[in-house]
Amino acid sequence: MSCSGRASGGKGRPLQGARTHIRWLALLALTGWVATDASRADLPFLSEKAVRTEIVGRTLTGYYVDGQPWTETYLPDTGISYQDRLYSWSGTWSFEGSAFCTFYNQRANGGCWLVRKISANCFEFYIASGGLLEEQLPDATRDVGHWTARGWRTDARSTCADWIS
Q1: Residue ranges per domain, the chain?
Q2: What is the pLDDT of residue 128?
């Protein structure tokens, strides 16, 4: 490092290799080839307004962390229609803070989720116990790899495959 804080190849010139490396990383990032766990963890959870814009009134399909597929329609009137390989349920959605909650008529329980948009049409859902805000959750819940479901809107091409897990 030089006194200016820049890497130097002698006589005040930046290192050629460092400059080339940075250019390649920038190109890869722009084309969607680079995605790290650290960059995902830096993505904020969506606000209620953002969830309403991105998800409400649409159908999402996706898979759980164990690979099981699911589909759910979030109707504008707070109704939901859920389906997986074994079940087909109806219910309601609501918000507790920024947590998006889904409860089913055929089940005595439901859950609240924090939603993270990881690419143009790919969302990860994280358990939000009691609708707690992100800053109130234990660190392990916010960590990458603790999403319980991943999904995308069916009205556009999924970009989940664009994200390197």
Answers
A1: 1-34, 38-162
A2: 84
